[in-house]
Amino acid sequence: MFTGIVEELGEVTAVENLGDSSRFRLRGPVVTQGAKHGDSIAVNGVCLTVVEHEDDWFTADVMAETLKRSSLGALTVGSRVNLERPMAVGERLGGHIVQGHVDGTGRIIERKPSENWEIVTISLPADLTRYVVEKGSITVDGISLTVVEAGPDHFTVSLIPTTLDLTTLGRKQPGDPVNLEVDVIAKYVERLLGSQGATR
């Protein structure tokens, strides 16, 4: 489980096409500290498994389904990525519960800079609209954010300077894809309410 608090801005240093998958080599000196084969690291919000690692880099295999359902397929050498290690038991939950299972992708629609923050509008797939509410939580490229406005096909978030400086959202431009993970609690509530209705 992750919290959506990005630990560092990493970089893709190699991409190997394996036919039905790809192997990424990523530089991230913070998240590789103490890393072991089989550990999980979230890359732009996608939970990946460490295959190999050295002092400041690790490799991870990405299956075709993940490449299809996320924006990882658009990564190239030099792409910057948000990196986060799983939360350790007993640590503070700084953001919200994030599984690293991307529900879909959106695109940056608009950026409105202000003096101390920036409002970013992001498109929202129709099948995810019901899970996104004003002042609720959503994960964008692995970043835990609060929804400012929830529209029928979009939502907005307000980004503080720290988020702009230390994550990919400070660099993404209109048209760029982003990974979206909605609040898992909303999905559980929907399933439970649906089950109750079916038994009546």
From TrEMBL:
Lumazine-binding repeats: 1-96, 97-193
Keyword Repeat recorded: yes
Domain Lumazine-binding as annotated: residue spans: 1-96, 97-193
Gene source species: Streptomyces heilongjiangensis
Reactions listed under catalytic activity: 2 6,7-dimethyl-8-(1-D-ribityl)lumazine + H(+) = 5-amino-6-(D-ribitylamino)uracil + riboflavin
PANTHER family in alphabetical order: RIBOFLAVIN SYNTHASE, RIBOFLAVIN SYNTHASE ALPHA CHAIN
Keyword Phosphoprotein: no
Enzyme Commission numbers on file: 2.5.1.9
Protein role: Catalyzes the dismutation of two molecules of 6,7-dimethyl-8-ribityllumazine, resulting in the formation of riboflavin and 5-amino-6-(D-ribitylamino)uracil.
GO molecular function: riboflavin synthase activity
PROSITE patterns: LUMAZINE_BIND (PS51177)
Pathway membership: Cofactor biosynthesis; riboflavin biosynthesis; riboflavin from 2-hydroxy-3-oxobutyl phosphate and 5-amino-6-(D-ribitylamino)uracil: step 2/2
Alphabetical list of InterPro entries matching this protein: ATP_synth_asu-like_sf, Lumazine-bd, Lumazine-bd_dom, Riboflavin_synthase-like_b-brl
Protein name stated in the entry: Riboflavin synthase
Keywords: Repeat, Riboflavin biosynthesis, Transferase
